[in-house]
Specification:
By secondary structure, this protein is of the alpha+beta class. It has one domain: Creatine Amidinohydrolase, CATH 3.90.230. It has four helices and 15 strands. Helix 1 packs antiparallel against helix 2.
Length: about 250
């Protein structure tokens, strides 16, 4: 069931989103050679708590970290731990913050030192595809298929593929709500996106095949061919004044 949000609820989601975005930036600043993913997770947790919020992901479905931190071919759901970052790594940080009953959810990919041209392009195109999705959302009577097609077409035009096994979603008093928001689709198809809907749009883009697999820890999702993956996400609301990005640190 899709739950439309009131103006005051969107403002509450904006407050939560701002905290998540600040924590995402704090984690990104720690993406340096020699730093462990556990350290990044600790910084993110401390940042969220310092703003009076709680980490949305900690113990969610049993997840052990405050943030999902995925490196190189890891797509999503990487468990923070003793892995030490190296020059050339790319790090996906996915953060959720719960504040006064509402959640903010966002992600980004950060480069460690000097990365390859392919990695640099992958990060850039993934972020660009999110804003292509926003352009689709700003057109009259958008559907989830329009959003997914915008992401997919941009990424594939640049030689990359979009993950199909995991998708974006609604956000509210729960981290994951209806509707599902795939990063692929056909224009004019899918759920109609109306004013009052709050969704997380999160392109997950691979350098090679779109196929993925889950490691033995039952959490970490990696590309099936071992090639790089990138992730970019914001929680957005469709309002009377257009699209509002809720996970903005400003």
């Amino acid at each position: 069931m899709i739950i439309l949000k009131t103006h005051s609820q969107i403002q509450a989601l904006r407050d939560a989103g701002r905290i998540a975005a600040i924590a995402r930036e704090a984690g990104g600043e720690q993406c340096r050679e020699g730093v462990t993913t556990a350290h990044i997770d600790a910084v993110i947790r401390k940042t969220i708590l310092s703003h009076g919020a709680t980490p949305s992901f900690l113990h969610l479905y049993g997840f052990p970290g405050s943030a999902c931190i995925s490196v190189n071919d890891e797509v999503i759901h990487g468990i923070p731990g003793g892995r030490v970052l190296k020059n050339g790594d790319i790090v996906k940080i996915d953060v959720g913050a719960k504040f006064r009953g509402y959640h903010g959810d966002c992600a980004a990919t950060f480069a460690v030192g000097e990365v390859s041209e392919e990695a640099e392009k992958l990060i850039r195109v993934t972020r660009e595809s999110f804003f292509k999705a926003i352009e689709a959302l700003e057109k009259p009577n958008p559907r989830t298929g329009d959003v997914g097609f915008a992401v997919q077409s941009h990424c594939e035009a640049n030689g990359f593929s979009v993950v199909r096994d995991y998708v974006g979603h609604g956000v509210g008093t729960e981290v994951h709500e209806d509707p599902e928001v795939p990063n692929y689709g056909q224009p004019g198809h899918g759920v109609r996106i109306t004013k009052g809907m709050v969704i997380a749009i999160e392109p997950m883009v691979n350098a090679g095949t779109h196929l993925v697999r889950t490691l033995e820890d039952d959490w970490t999702v990696v590309t099936k061919d071992g090639k790089l993956s990138s992730h970019y996400e914001n929680t957005v609301a469709l309002t009377e004044n257009g699209v509002l990005i809720l996970t903005d640190p400003a």
